[in-house]
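Handoff note, outgoing to incoming analyst
You'll be picking up this chain. Sequence as last confirmed:
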Amino acid sequence: MSKPNFSKILQNLKPDLVIYDILQQWAERVANEQNIPTVKLLTSGATVFSYFTISLNKPGDVFPFPEIYLRKSEQVKMNDTLKCAKEIEKPDDGDRQAD
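Most recent structure output, in case you need it:
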């Protein structure tokens, strides 16, 4: 898995900052364990971020802007993505790509 290797890389390189994205949530914990500040890079626009945030924090609620919606097939894909994101948040390595 990537987490132990990443930890060693950080120990060797001693970076001033770690920038991570949504697929490597565990990178924040590894960097914090070594007192390295982190920044999450979100490459999606504000609308997408807002839609996902409300969907995660208030499941079942209707998005407050009816002009912005997902078709049924898109909702299924989003739910699958959210399930994967929850698995990534688990305390293990979370590196699904390396499995």
